Amino acid sequence: MSVSHSLNLRLFAPPPTAIPTHASLPPPTLLFPRHRRLPSLRASSSPEILVSDNNGVPAPLSDPSSIEVDSVTEAELKENGFRSTRRTKLVCTVGPATCGFEQLEALAVGGMNVARINMCHGTREWHKEVIDRVRRLNHEKGFAVAIMMDTEGSEIHMGDLGGASSVKADDGEIWTFSVRAFDSTLPQHTINVNYEGFAEDVQVGDELLVDGGMVRFEVIQKIGPDVECRCTDPGLLLPRANLTFWRNGSLVRERNAMLPTISSKDWLDIDFGIAEGVDFIAISFVKSAEVITHLKSYIAARSRDSDISVIAKIESIDSLKNLEEIIQAADGAMVARGDLGAQIPLEQVPSAQQRIVQLCRQLNKPVIVASQLLESMIEYPTPTRAEVADVSEAVRQRADALMLSGESAMGQYPEKALTVLRSVSLRIEKWWRDEKRYEAMLLPSVGSYFSEKISEEICNSAAKMANNLEVDALFVYTKTGYMASLLSRCRPDCPIFAFTTTPSVRRRLNLQWGLIPFRLSFSDDMESNLNRTFALLKARNLIKSGDLVIAVSDMLQSIQVMNVP
Ligand SMILES: Nc1ncnc2c1ncn2[C@@H]1O[C@H](COP(=O)(O)OP(=O)(O)O)[C@@H](O)[C@H]1O
Ligand SMILES: C=C(OP(=O)(O)O)C(=O)O
Ligand SMILES: [K+]
Ligand SMILES: [Mg+2]
């Protein structure tokens, strides 16, 4: 059997010109025939067409409620026109400063695409409340904020500081780090450590780094389970701060390197995340691809729709060593610069970031740049110039998303920090678009099936055409989100309207560069899909007659160029 695939290139105004391109393809195994030619849109733009909405109930064509788009995105589209919508996505860590409904709403209004909860902190009940509030926000206020659950991982960290929000360690002070369990109050200048082997693994003379070097100690004496240390770099100790130790200038990886990436507590948290139906699970301190594959098969077995994406956090030496296979196995990655900067020399973090961002794009996986983007805004209402430059660099690298940690979790200015990320993203994106100075990136083929390779070629071509023809928007009709991700990977000049039938796919698309996710029920008939979309979007003033659009879909492998009628 030989199936011919036609690319339907149709222009509606000026007068329709058909430029069919035929390619002779070997028999595909996973394809159903997609060579049906489309009738002209112009000939049949009847407003009487009835289409099925979400529940199978026929909805009139002009019913604007049968398309769902984020209310903030909608306002942004109307206000600035869609060429200038923000392409870089924003992730906010939710903590005590932002867990209330109104606070979460303020973040959503400010552009939060994904809410992250860090299982290292807070109770499961607390996290459940946050998840419920985000859900309610989406439901009641028309947002599509995705939820990312971040595991604690088998890291060594301090205890809870007996309930204090922070304690100051001064230069020269002697502190005791202990694995002993203290039942009531902690003795003065004592820190609890969560790792049993701590006292055995450290040696006198080792350097102990809190939070990757925010505070430093030198080990001066070991007494059973207690390790006495002298503070050499004073600073604030925060609850559950991460601990690393260094010997003769390099990171010590003793037995803790043998701890499992996913601890028993993490598995319980993962069960909780699956039960709650979170959209992303981020895995801390990933060392190899196996752990990701293992988790993915666990999720597939446990969750009915198994549509939770797994994000690999790149924050250790091992993860850098096995970078390619880890990213390949995962559904996305995070440049977790906090811990990464404690495991490799700080001056190597920028090049590692660049490499991870590039590789993710080549392998078609979304990538988040995280930690300390606007660290000073935890305390101050304006960022430092250096922080703005750092954010700009991540935007210029065209990472999919930027993340706030302490700035939004426990800082004094969460909304202001988000505003900075938003405005810097918009400005830098526009600057680089105007200058057309992006280096072209070679995008290797990522598809394993022949049909995927066709999709890839279609998306690469559509994105190139969109740039050359300076179209207003790319439209993609996608059931699984795959075609949308392939378009996003090309980082085209125009925004990508991604239409998908499933709410969870729509939320997950929210992490990817340049995608404006809509939920819409659609059929295999592209003509009626397009007619319907145009009518719905026009009814909401999101597009207007004459706008130039390129449409692709994963049901019908075609590229269509058209003016909105
Ligand atoms: N659920 C929470 N409950 C209390 N504090 C939190 C919570 N989430 C985050 N925080 C605070 O925000 C800080 C920054 O968050 P994050 O970077 O995610 O964690 P960490 O500092 O442990 O890497 C944390 O150190 C902690 O003080
Ligand atoms: C994002 C990170 O992980 P966490 O905040 O969980 O330590 C990081 O280390 O940069
Ligand atoms: K974590
Ligand atoms: Mg970390």
UniProtKB/TrEMBL annotation:
<keyword id="KW-0670">Pyruvate</keyword>
<keyword id="KW-0150">Chloroplast</keyword>
<dbReference type="GO" id="GO:0009570">
    <property type="term" value="C:chloroplast stroma"/>
</dbReference>
<dbReference type="Pfam" id="PF02887">
    <property type="entry name" value="PK_C"/>
</dbReference>
<keyword id="KW-0460">Magnesium</keyword>
<keyword id="KW-0547">Nucleotide-binding</keyword>
<keyword id="KW-0479">Metal-binding</keyword>
<dbReference type="InterPro" id="IPR018209">
    <property type="entry name" value="Pyrv_Knase_AS"/>
</dbReference>
<comment type="subunit">
    <text>Oligomer of alpha and beta subunits.</text>
</comment>
<dbReference type="Pfam" id="PF00224">
    <property type="entry name" value="PK"/>
</dbReference>
<dbReference type="InterPro" id="IPR015793">
    <property type="entry name" value="Pyrv_Knase_brl"/>
</dbReference>
<dbReference type="InterPro" id="IPR040442">
    <property type="entry name" value="Pyrv_kinase-like_dom_sf"/>
</dbReference>
<comment type="pathway">
    <text>Carbohydrate degradation; glycolysis; pyruvate from D-glyceraldehyde 3-phosphate: step 5/5.</text>
</comment>
<dbReference type="InterPro" id="IPR015806">
    <property type="entry name" value="Pyrv_Knase_insert_dom_sf"/>
</dbReference>
<dbReference type="GO" id="GO:0016301">
    <property type="term" value="F:kinase activity"/>
</dbReference>
<protein>
    <recommendedName>
        <fullName>Pyruvate kinase</fullName>
        <ecNumber>2.7.1.40</ecNumber>
    </recommendedName>
</protein>
<keyword id="KW-0808">Transferase</keyword>
<keyword id="KW-0809">Transit peptide</keyword>
<dbReference type="InterPro" id="IPR015795">
    <property type="entry name" value="Pyrv_Knase_C"/>
</dbReference>
<dbReference type="GO" id="GO:0000287">
    <property type="term" value="F:magnesium ion binding"/>
</dbReference>
<keyword id="KW-0418">Kinase</keyword>
<dbReference type="InterPro" id="IPR036918">
    <property type="entry name" value="Pyrv_Knase_C_sf"/>
</dbReference>
<keyword id="KW-0324">Glycolysis</keyword>
<dbReference type="InterPro" id="IPR015813">
    <property type="entry name" value="Pyrv/PenolPyrv_kinase-like_dom"/>
</dbReference>
<dbReference type="GO" id="GO:0004743">
    <property type="term" value="F:pyruvate kinase activity"/>
</dbReference>
<feature type="domain" description="Pyruvate kinase C-terminal">
    <location>
        <begin position="456"/>
        <end position="555"/>
    </location>
</feature>
<keyword id="KW-0630">Potassium</keyword>
<dbReference type="GO" id="GO:0030955">
    <property type="term" value="F:potassium ion binding"/>
</dbReference>
<keyword id="KW-0934">Plastid</keyword>
<dbReference type="GO" id="GO:0005524">
    <property type="term" value="F:ATP binding"/>
</dbReference>
<dbReference type="InterPro" id="IPR011037">
    <property type="entry name" value="Pyrv_Knase-like_insert_dom_sf"/>
</dbReference>
<dbReference type="InterPro" id="IPR001697">
    <property type="entry name" value="Pyr_Knase"/>
</dbReference>
<keyword id="KW-0067">ATP-binding</keyword>
<comment type="similarity">
    <text>Belongs to the pyruvate kinase family.</text>
</comment>
<feature type="domain" description="Pyruvate kinase barrel">
    <location>
        <begin position="86"/>
        <end position="417"/>
    </location>
</feature>
